[in-house]
Amino acid sequence: MPPKNWKEKWLPVSDLAGGGQGDTKIVRESARSVGTPRFLKVLRQQNDVKRRKRMYREVAAYRTIKHPRIPRLIDTNADLFEDQTYKLYLVTEYVPGRTLGEFISARGPLDFAGALAMSELLLEAVEYCHSNDVVHRDIKPDNIILSDDSLADPVLVDFGLSFNNAEGDPLQTEIAVELGNRFLRLPELSDNTAMKRDPRSDITFCAAVLLYSITGLIPRNLIDHRSQRPHQHPETLARLAEVVHGHQMRHLLYFFDKAFELNPINRWQSASEMKGELSRIAALGLKMPAEYTATWAEIEAYRNSASVQATQLREKLLREALQEFSRAFLDIRNRVNLSWMEVGVAIDPKAGIATTEAALMPIGEQIRGRVGVKISIVGGEVVFDIAYRGQTDRLFRTPVASPKYGTALVTALEPTFLRQLMDDISH
Questions:
Q1: What CATH number has the domain bearing residue 48?
Q2: pTM, whole model, 2 decimals?
Q3: Each residue of 265-304: b (16+ CB within 10 Å) or e?
């Protein structure tokens, strides 16, 4: 039978700061003169039935998960939570180091690359928990220990609010109470909701931990009285802008936009999905300025090539010719003073061709005929071909070197458009 009291098996070495559920100490086995330090948690309110059940559930979670970023369970008597004569406790591996909250309070926010890397490691532990049907539900800086103060070794602790599908749930009243923490309140963990076992809450907590790691600011609420999400607060944005720039900043803000959606269905859906996005954001910062300089040099060489410059000149001439056609058509339609349409502009600068369609229309009538306009660069000239009712006429041409449009273009176009309008009116 397990001990009824932790003191029967363990000797205190030093006290630790307690959590909401229990008192904590560093202990060693009393049977050994020199033993490995362990972490002890003793239930604070031993007569509270709900708290006794919760400690049992925490133990069930520790038994289910075996991961290098989660402490291993060593000893407990929480299986006998229904027997009030047992003073419930649990003992896990001891992780030396400060919590992420203590670390940042002492040394300030993490550098961006370090925060991304630490978050990816944290998400590995969360992904493992979820794959084993365990939802932590209390991820926050105070529940992340940096082993030996190393950002490369974060450890997720305190499964006191966790839920384990494999073990069932001895607590039957969760819907009526609020869960989670003051670090970030989530709507699905508020009182009278039925979504308190959704693993996406853990994913959102991880995003909040990342935001805190970069800025040192606690998010508190998913949305505030100004309808702002945690990353949209002016002070938070200012701190992000100090350390994140360019493409990384744009992608990071999108990352938080999605992470802090009110409805979980619109957030990141899994730890692996979020981890993949953070990897992409990190990769954006790996490209060195020298590489960008080389890329720009290649682009400049391409722009200065003879073929590209010739294509650019053709595009410029075609766009100018289209503008001149629109001006000429405007002159015609203003004198007619009826309805009109101009649609379907397309430009192929490599081929040296631009096309559009236009028509004059009787008031209140459906369009019946359209005039097709094709502008081409033929040798040293810009030429206009007008197609109507199956007939194509080359009505206008002007030199590429010094194109002239104006009244001459209007005069060339006018007969075809007047004919098109009279055909529509006569029908």
A1: 3.30.200.20
A2: 0.67
A3: eebbebbbebbebbeebbeeeeeeeeeeeeeeeeeeeeee
Torsion of CA 402, 403, 408, 411, to 10 degrees: 170
The range of the structural domain enclosing residue 27 comes to 1-94
Alpha-carbon distance of 161 to 40, in angstroms, equals: 17
Whether residue 298 lies inside any domain: the answer is: no
What's the CA angle centered on 165, arms 161 and 168, to 5 degrees?
Answer: 85
The one-letter code for the residue type at 263 is N
Task: Confirm if 144 and 249 have CB atoms less than 8 A apart.
Answer: no
- Reported as a single tens digit per residue, the pLDDT across 145-201 is 999 999 999 999 988 887 665 555 544 445 444 455 678 988 887 655 555 678 999
Our CA dihedral for 116, 121, 127, 129, rounded to 10 degrees, sits at: -130
User: For residues 9 and 32, what is the distance between their CA atoms, to the nearest angstrom?
Assistant: 10
**Residue 291 is assigned to a structural domain of this protein:** no
The two beta strands, 184-185 and 220-221, are: parallel
* CB of 56 closer than 8 Å to CB of 73: no
Task: Report the number of distinct structural domains present in the chain.
Answer: 3
Catalytic residue among 138, 158, 385, 424: 138
Q: In which element (H, E) is residue 344 found? A: strand 339-348
* 26 φ/ψ sector (left φ>0, alpha ψ -120 to 50, else beta): beta
> Locate tokens 């944005």: which residue?
237
List residues bridging with 25 in a β-sheet.
15, 40
| C-alpha torsion sign, points 301, 303, 304, 310 | positive
Return the amino acid letter for 424.
Answer: D
Q: Catalytic site residue 138?
A: yes
- Helices 112-131 and 200-215 meet at what angle, rounded to 10? 160
Residue 316 has pLDDT above 90, yes or no: yes
Question: Does 295 map to a domain?
Answer: no
